[in-house]
């Protein structure tokens, strides 16, 4: 029987890191690639959704190539990522906007609004006080850019975006990993 391997991909703020493990959990090799961060104007910090995908593909390929394994022996791949920023996809799973980084504070007035109106309830239900999380960022998109908001089928994290592209999801099938939900400001944890 051939050996089997697992790949883990961490889609971080400034870099993507991939690691190849054997089925016993032993690290075989790892790779990383820088993910560009854009500062188009003061207070705006964003990233290209497809930079997450291309760096994931690059680092996974480097792990498989440098290890010399047969790519068909990779039996599973998992994606994890930053949680506080938010990306968007349309019905065809194409980005509608750039990824709104957790470093981007355009949503600050909405954080303050949520805090004033229902901060205690949000904290009690989600376990996380209102901050620069997806809840405030989604509200910002809805209120400040309603035409863009109407084109958004789903909001996604980098992990959900890359996983969705890998398997060919449509916009209505997009998801945010449930383990991120506590930080969203939108859940009853």
What does this structure look like?
This protein is an alpha+beta fold. The protein has one domain (5-183): ATPase, nucleotide binding domain (Nucleotidyltransferase, domain 5). It has five helices and nine strands. 39% of the residues are buried. The model has no long low-confidence stretch (mean pLDDT 94).
CATH superfamily: ATPase, nucleotide binding domain
Contiguous helical run count: 5
- Largest beta sheet: what is the strand line-up? 3-2-1-6
CATH architecture: 2-Layer Sandwich
Order of helices and strands: EEEEEHEEEHHHEH
What would the keywords be for this entry?
189 residues; 9 strands; three-stranded antiparallel beta sheet; alpha+beta
Strand-helix topology:
Layout: E1 5-11, E2 15-22, E3 27-34, E4 38-41, E5 44-47, H1 49-67, E6 74-81, E7 87-89, E8 99-100, H2 108-126, H3 134-144, H4 146-151, E9 154-156, H5 158-167
Parallel strand pairs: 1-6
Antiparallel strand pairs: 1-2, 2-3, 4-5, 5-8, 7-9
Helix pairs in contact: 1-5, 2-3
């Amino acid at each position: 029987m051939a050996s089997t391997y697992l790949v883990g991909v961490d889609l971080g703020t400034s870099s993507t890191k991939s690691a190849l493990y054997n089925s016993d959990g032993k690290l075989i090799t790892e790779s990383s690639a820088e993910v560009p961060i854009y500062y188009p104007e003061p207070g705006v910090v964003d990233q290209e959704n497809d930079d997450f995908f291309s760096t994931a593909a690059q680092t996974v390929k480097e792990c498989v190539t440098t290890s010399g394994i047969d790519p068909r022996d990779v039996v599973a791949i998992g994606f994890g990522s930053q949680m506080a920023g938010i990306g968007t996809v349309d019905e065809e799973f194409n980005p509608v906007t750039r990824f709104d980084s957790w470093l981007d504070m355009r949503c600050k007035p909405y954080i303050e609004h949520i805090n004033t109106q229902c901060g205690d309830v949000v904290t009690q239900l989600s376990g996380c006080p209102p901050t620069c999380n997806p809840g405030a960022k989604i509200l910002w998109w809805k209120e400040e850019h309603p035409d863009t908001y109407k084109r958004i089928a789903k909001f996604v994290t980098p992990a959900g975006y890359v996983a969705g592209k890998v398997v060919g999801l449509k916009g209505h099938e997009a998801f945010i990993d449930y383990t991120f939900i506590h930080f969203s400001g939108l859940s009853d944890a």
